[in-house]
Amino acid sequence: MAEYSGVMVHAEAEEGKLAAIATELLGCGRRLADDLGEELSAVIVGSGVSNLAAEAFASGADKVYLVDDALLQDYQTDTHVPAVEKVVRQAMPRILLLGQTSIGRDLAPRLAFRLETTATMDCIELDIDPGSKRLRRTKPVYGGNARAVFTSELDPQIATVRTKAMTPLAPDTSRKGEVVNVAAGLDSSKVRTRVLEKVKQEVEGISLEAANVVISGGRGMGGAEGFKQLEELAKMLKGAMGASRPPCDNGWVPDVLQVGLTGKIVAPDLYIAVALSGSSQHMAGCSGCKNIVAINKDPEANIFREARFGVVGDWKKVLPAFSAKVKELLAG
Amino acid sequence: MNMIVCVKQVIDPEAPPSSFRVDEAGKKVVPPAGVPPVISPFDENAVEAALRIKDVQGGKITVISMGVNLLREVVKKPLSMGADELVLLEDEAFAGGDSWSNARALALAIKKIGVYDLIFCGRQAADWDEGQVGSGIAEMLGLPGVTLARKIDVSDGKARVEQVTADGYEVVEVSLPALITVSNELGEARYPTIKGIMAAKKIEPIVWKPADIGLEPEQAGAAGRKIILQKLYQPVHEGKCEIIEGESPEEAGAKLALKLREAKLL
Ligand SMILES: Cc1cc2nc3c(=O)[nH]c(=O)nc-3n(C[C@H](O)[C@H](O)[C@H](O)COP(=O)(O)OP(=O)(O)OC[C@H]3O[C@@H](n4cnc5c(N)ncnc54)[C@H](O)[C@@H]3O)c2cc1C
Questions:
Q1: Do B249 and A326 touch (CB under 8 A)?
Q2: What is the mean pLDDT of residues B196-225?
Q3: Is residue A195 in some structural domain?
Q4: Is the pLDDT reported for residue B239 higher than 80?
Q5: pLDDT value of residue A1
Q6: Helix axis angle, B249-262 relative to A315-331, nearest 10°?
């Protein structure tokens, strides 16, 4: 019987290119594959995705499995799980990495149960145990209050990885590799879901995940009105506005602005947190930032354990003066 | 419409982070003193999702909870919100499970209940934050599913589900029976009413042991795990915050801007 070998990355596409998370996974996968002395492959599933193979090679892959089929246009559990399952059964990777994205969150557990193996979700560190050669998967648990390290005796070892937790390689377009086309072999009568519509909640300006400066407001902002001031400040600093969960739940700002464990992961140079307490679940979304600045009226708020600079006070008084001074400094 | 909702009792995730303790040797979290456990918040959203369907077209909601030391006042909350029946998988043997053993036990309990159109789970439990059990149950029962739901409408044997995506949502139609995991974007769970609390008092939970659902002891809880927990620890906080002070809040705000300029952050 063939043996499991090598590392495979499920590489998601986004607007005709590899998604940022795919290159991050390839960077991490390359390191794990080199540690094992084995091959790194990528599996790309979709419709019209053949041109992405070159990008995967440039980002570190030795081999690319392509499953290109019109039925794979939109992500659906009933089409993508069988497609990836087929590639995994054929290629038998020892390790399979996916992104902790809406797709990875759906795909990884389904695959793990179907392949009778285990998955660990939302990992922030992955390495090979020097003794057992098994994958050590470190993930935040209890909303980020603790970390757990897991291993498993079962192959393939599946892990999803938090966005921005891994570093991509510098792209090397001279790298080439082998492309393996795999027929999806899907039976459309077995697809039990249908995507009827895709709705984008557009947000003006720089995207939260790409911004170098992020200004987030929390429950203490008290309403949509306060966020206008944060938006102005964000514009002035050429940054983006974010929020903790309560302002999203209350409809003060769109849901897509939520930063945290179950929202966006951001890693700006500067993160300004206004009237949010710094719950572990919120900090999970911005802990990659070295320069967190807090404005909060409660000196005991957890955010002051995480911040580099802080002001204890009412944001309604502190923020306008802060913004005015920022404006003056940027002008001068 | 027959609906089943899986809910988990967890340590209150909103307890202050400073009260959080890990027993590293035991690889366990020490429940903070004086903070009662709660239903995992996304599971409350899942109960709410079922109740909204019941509000419109009627139906029966059965809630399942699994674990040890299940506090009746905690696990009965969905009943006081308006659910009809409570099944407890309560036994030492169910303790210490992973996604595999938990999904297996819940799938067997759902099979025993037998009739269902929709099964709901929260998108992830607030303790291990895995988000795998819902998908595992669906795989074991051979069901289609939609994860991360923010709105659900049911008609003609199908559910139309708004599924949260990174930049908005997708509308997905799924045939029934199906398993749906629910996210907080669905909206807050309703508060129990006095009438609901009185009604819940009269409902006796049905308690099942592993043998009642045909679960072999070596597949239950800790014995049925497939993943090995090597280590559990608390990350260290090395940060120390420099508090910028001023005669007035306004002055402190202005000084903060100067400080950020000095640190080359502006
Ligand atoms: C499994 C799970 C996942 C979650 N995922 C996320 C997530 O992804 N993102 C997220 O953000 N949350 C998430 N949460 C929710 C999280 O636990 C907290 O409830 C939430 O982050 C709290 O938001 P907050 O800090 O804005 O509100 P609060 O904790 O209520 O804090 C409000 C703060 O505002 C301050 N304040 C009030 N008025 C003023 C004023 N006038 N001036 C200055 N300061 C003021 C107060 O002192 C307080 O510190 C999740 C929870 C669970 C259980």
A1: no
A2: 97
A3: no
A4: no
A5: 58
A6: 40
Dump pLDDT digits (tens) for B36-49: 999 999 999 999 99
Collect all residues of chain B within an 8 Å Cβ-Cβ radius of residue A150: 227-230
Scored b (16 or more CB within 10 A) or e, B232-259 reads beeeeeeeebeebebeebbbbbbbbbbb
State the alpha helices, DSSP H only, in A195-306. Answer: 224-236, 245-249, 280-283, 303-306
Q: What is the CATH number of the domain that holds A179?
A: 3.40.50.620
pTM value?
A: 0.97
B55: closest CA of chain A, how far (Å): 22
Q: Which residue is it, tokens 């590899």?
A: A18
Residues A296 and A152 in one domain: no
- A161 & A302 share domain: no
Over 90: is that where the pLDDT of A56 sits? Answer: yes
Structure token pair of residue A125: 């560190």
Return the ligand 1 atom nearest residue A302 CA: 49
> Could you tell me the domains of chain B?
2-224 (3.40.50.620), 236-266 (no CATH)
Residue A201 lies in a domain: no
Looking up tokens 């807090």 gives A294
**B215 contacts: CB under 8 Å, gap ≥ 6:** B104, B105, B108
Determine the Cα–Cα distance for residues B180 and B163; give it in Å rounded to an integer: 10
Domain ranges, residue A15: 7-190
Mean pLDDT of B162-169: 96
The CATH number of whichever domain residue A308 belongs to comes to 3.40.50.1220
- pLDDT tens readout for residues A77-93: 999 999 999 999 999 99
Taking CB atoms and an 8 Å limit, are B258 and A329 in contact across chains? yes
